[in-house]
Specification:
The chain has 104 residues and is mainly beta. The chain has helices at residues 81-91, 98-101, and strands at 2-7, 12-17, 22-27, 30-33, 47-50, 55-57, 62-68, 71-76. 14% of the residues lie in helices and 40% in strands.
Length: 104
């Protein structure tokens, strides 16, 4: 699943991203902070700067904060295998998919 987002000056987007999520900077400069905002006093913040055209791949699932000054980003979330099976099941008539694996 893809989600396009624009972060204006002073805007912060906080969220939980799954492992394998990709963040692509389409325009501007993005600041990624890996320490959750509520633990800022306990842990040193790890901030990474991405420029236009750069991509960040999240290796581990976790909370992060995104900030920028008019930055345009594309967040590409990995789709679980179950969703792909359901999509294939819709496209191919006769494909058993999940129904074939259900226990009686």
């Amino acid at each position: 699943m893809e989600k396009q987002q624009v972060l204006h000056k002073g805007q912060v987007a906080r969220g939980y991203l799954r492992a394998g999520t990709q963040i692509l900077v389409q325009r501007g400069r993005l600041f990624i902070q890996y320490t959750p905002h509520y633990m800022g006093a306990c842990l040193p913040a790890q901030t990474q700067v991405l420029l236009e055209g750069e991509l960040e791949l999240t290796v581990e699932a976790g909370w992060l904060s995104l900030t920028g000054d008019g930055v345009e980003i594309l967040i590409i979330d990995p789709v679980p295998a179950r969703c792909w099976i359901l999509k294939i099941q819709e496209l191919l008539p006769g494909f058993k998919g999940l129904k074939a694996y259900k226990k009686s």
